[in-house]
Every structure is written in structure tokens, then in C-alpha cells.
Design a protein that fits this description.
- With about 450 residues, this protein is mainly α.
- It has 18 helices and 6 strands.
- It is globular and about 65 Å long.
Length: about 450
């Protein structure tokens, strides 16, 4: 018989999985906005009910729910992003013995590698994920006239996936495996095991990690593993994993100050040096094979991407919150200053035994400052929230999703302004209505007792 505390959670989880399935299969070319609101509401309900489930029963429930949440992302081709098609192409190019940084997808030299999956013919090229090349050919690869932007560990991942079908469905399946593996890792790393559901059941995992198959999921997995090793004093292993995470998507570099928490408040230890050195070494070594093959072109489209996304002077489309109070020309400098202050705070006052706490603070702050329009950047934040437990930071990737759906500077400032309010107000309310309640996590969530935020 199903225990009384488990049944309500199971029902809420089933409702969440059903809503997510409808999100990725209904609504024409792109899901309707209302589905996302329903997904978030059911996710919150399911996690609240999970808190009442005893630890021994919570672990298999979290894992089973993670499998279901990931699986429904496989029900349809990518719905909101076409990045997965570039992943498939980069893997195919490498499998042919060619550096992915050497040619653009529309280069005639690579015509022999084309297939209807990436270069459709006869359909009018009218799909949301289709566009014409300069020569007039139809393709699903975004920005076909520019070189790839993805770092070497991501490229190695694309190559590793190529033998398993060489299509976007295989990339989606790999995203599902990464998502569930991250849940399993969180169950073994975090002290309050129910928190793994903050990742495993999060609606963005279905959409961004599986259906759209963003490689950010691999970066999140490596970051969680690296921080877990750092917390256990395994400096070299932790550094290698974190370096690999940075060489997957660059964004996990924001987690490194967390791994070095408290460094400025003490004499650097051998572990600090080994962790930082192994992270830098892993990052540099991952580039060597591609530098040997392509030289400085390994930077790919990164400089152009930064210009296109509005991170340079004279063409600023980011930093929406800072631009409310500062001239445009000062916004990037102010963002850098604020982020530097946060990094110094983590390096002085951070907890070495909880490196994810500082990593979340730095990463979440960076996204609030920059206010990106791509919500899958927030997958790293979701993973760090699942480690740390400060659920209010989930408002940051939610803001990215709202901006992605609506667009415009007003939406940028409204969505990220709301997220900032949530991040600032929830801790105040937490202190006002009870602060930190010490609970016996062994009786509800597993692990040893710790100060748990309520």
C-alpha cells in the first residue's frame, strides 16, 4: 500500500509530467505560454508535497520522477531552440576527420556531409527552425554562415554522440541521460536529498535539457561533480571536472570562486593550488588538439556572438536592470564591478564545505546583471539550487524563459526585475518567519542534520 505522504506527491508528479508532455507536443510550432505557467505551478506543488515524504521513500521517488520528467522531453523534435542541429553537424564534421572550427556549415567543401535531416529539400523551407544559406539552400543549422562557437569538451561530446544515430533524436536522448545522471549525482552529493527534485523535476529540464538538448546540461553535470569533489577535499579531481565544465560552455567558470571559498581569509593551501591548477590545466589541455588542427580559429564565432547578443559598447542589448539607473556606456563596467565585489565576498566569507553556496551566489548574480535572453543558461543555476536549497534563485532562469517568450527591453527589465525582487525578499521573509529551522534530515530527506532553509 502506498503511504499517505507519498500518494499526494505521486498525484502531483503525475499531473506535472502530463502537463510537460502537453507542453512539448501541443500548441503548433511553439508551445503556448500558458503551459509554462501550469508547469511551474505543478512543479512547486509536487516539491512541497515531497518535503513530507520520509527520506527512504523520497530517494526512489525523486529518481523515478526525474526519469519521467526527462522522458517526456523526447516526445517531439526541438520546439524552442535549433541548437541541437548544430551539435549534430559538428559531430558529423569531426567524424569525417575535419576540425569543426575549420569550415562554416554552408561551405561547399562540406557539401558531401549534408543530409535531409539538416538540409531539408522540397518542403519550402518555411519551418520555424529552417532558413536559407547564402547559396539558397535550406538548412536547420542556425547561423550557417559562421563558424561554431562551442568549446572543445562540448565538441568531444558531439563527436561521441555521432555513432549513435548521428541525428537530433540521439542528441535529445543523450540530454535525457545527462539530466537523470545529474539527479543521481545530486542525490549522492547533497545532504537534504529531496532537493535533488529541484533539478530533476524542474520544467526547464524537460524543455531545455532534453527537448532542446542544450549542451549546458553536460556543463551542469560536470560542475556538480566538481563541486562535490571540492567539498570532500578531492582537489585535483574537482579541478579537472570544473575545468572540463568550463571547456563545455564557459559559463561554469562562475562556479570556480565557490570552489575556492574562503581563500582570501586564510593562507592558500596545497588543495587550493591543486584545484585551481588542475582546472586551468584541464581547460588548456582540452584545447590543444583543436589548436593544433585549426590554430586561432578555435575561438570560432565567440567574438561575433558577443557582438550579436549585445555585450559590447555602442550596441548594448543586455544589462537591463543596470540600464534603469545608469547610462548605457557605464552598464557593462558597473556589472563587472558588482560581480567582482560578489566574487571577493565569496573568496573571503564563503564556506569551503559548501562550495555550491558561493557558486550559486556568483552565477545567479552574473545572470541577473547580464539579463540574458536564453533561459537554458539558467540550467547551471538550477543545478546549484538543487545543491544549496535556496529555491528563490529559480526565479532567475524563469526570468530568462519569460524574456525568451516575449522579447524586448521592457520584458527584460520586468522579468529580471521580478527575479531580483524574489531573490532579495525571500531571504528576508525566511528570517522574519522563522529563519533557519534545524531539522533532522535523517528522518525527512536523508543525510545528517543540517540548518535547512524554510
Amino acid at each position: 500500500m502506498i503511504p499517505r505522504t507519498v500518494l499526494p506527491c505521486l498525484l502531483a508528479l503525475a499531473a506535472l509530467v502530463t502537463a510537460l508532455a502537453l507542453t512539448v507536443t501541443e500548441g503548433g510550432a511553439l508551445p503556448r505560454h500558458g503551459w509554462y505557467l501550469l508547469d511551474v505551478a505543478l512543479f512547486a506543488l509536487a516539491v512541497l508535497l515531497l518535503r513530507r515524504v520520509p527520506g527512504r521513500q523520497a530517494v526512489p521517488l525523486v529518481l523515478a520522477g526525474s526519469v519521467a520528467v526527462a522522458a517526456v522531453g523526447l516526445l517531439a523534435p526541438p520546439r524552442t531552440s535549433d541548437d541541437a542541429y548544430r551539435y549534430v553537424w559538428d559531430g558529423r564534421v569531426q567524424a569525417a576527420g575535419i576540425s569543426p572550427y575549420a569550415h562554416t556549415p554552408d561551405d561547399p567543401a562540406l557539401t558531401r556531409l549534408r543530409d535531409p535531416g539538416l538540409f531539408p529539400t522540397g518542403d519550402g523551407c518555411t519551418g520555424w527552425d529552417e532558413r536559407r544559406t547564402a547559396a539558397g539552400d535550406c538548412t536547420r543549422i542556425n547561423r550557417p554562415a559562421v563558424h561554431t562557437v562551442y568549446p572543445p569538451v562540448a565538441q568531444a561530446w558531439f563527436l561521441a554522440l555521432h555513432p549513435f544515430g548521428g541525428g537530433v533524436r540521439g542528441v535529445q536522448a543523450a540530454g535525457a541521460l545527462l539530466a537523470v545522471a545529474t539527479t543521481g549525482l545530486l542525490l549522492g552529493t547533497g545532504r537534504a536529498r529531496w532537493r535533488a527534485a529541484l533539478w530533476g523535476w524542474f520544467p526547464g529540464v524537460t524543455v531545455w535539457a532534453v527537448n532542446d538538448a542544450h549542451v549546458d546540461t553536460l556543463g551542469a553535470l560536470l560542475t556538480v561533480a566538481g563541486l562535490g569533489c571540492a567539498a570532500r577535499g578531492r582537489a585535483v579531481r574537482g579541478g579537472l571536472l570544473l575545468g572540463g565544465a568550463v571547456a563545455t560552455k564557459l559559463l561554469p567558470a562562475l562556479a570556480l570562486p565557490g570552489a575556492l571559498s574562503g581563500l582570501l581569509a586564510r593562507r592558500p593551501t596545497r588543495g587550493d593550488v591543486l584545484l585551481l591548477g588542475s582546472a586551468l590545466g584541464a581547460f588548456a589541455l582540452s584545447y590543444l588538439p583543436y589548436v593544433a588542427a585549426s590554430g586561432t580559429s578555435v575561438l570560432g564565432y565567440l567574438p561575433g556572438y558577443l557582438r550579436e547578443e549585445g555585450y559590447e559598447q555602442g550596441h548594448i542589448d543586455r544589462f537591463g536592470l543596470l540600464r534603469l539607473v545608469l547610462p548605457d556606456r557605464l552598464a557593462p563596467w558597473a556589472a563587472g564591478l558588482v560581480l567582482a565585489v560578489v566574487v571577493v565576498r565569496v573568496l573571503r566569507l564563503g564556506d569551503r564545505e559548501r562550495p555550491w553556496e558561493g557558486a550559486l551566489l556568483v552565477t545567479g548574480t552574473a545572470l541577473l546583471l547580464v539579463a540574458p535572453g536564453y533561459p537554458w543558461y539558467g540550467l547551471l543555476v538550477v543545478a546549484l539550487v538543487a545543491l544549496d536549497g535556496r529555491w528563490e534563485w529559480l526565479a532567475v532562469p524563469a526570468a530568462g524563459q519569460a524574456l525568451y517568450l516575449t522579447g524586448g527591453q521592457g520584458a527584460q527589465q520586468l522579468s529580471y526585475g521580478t527575479a531580483l525582487c524574489v531573490v532579495l525578499l525571500v531571504p528576508l521573509l525566511r528570517q522574519r518567519f522563522g529563519g533557519r529551522a534545524v531539522v533532522a534530515e535523517g528522518s525527512r530527506g536523508g543525510g545528517r542534520p543540517e540548518a535547512t532553509r524554510v
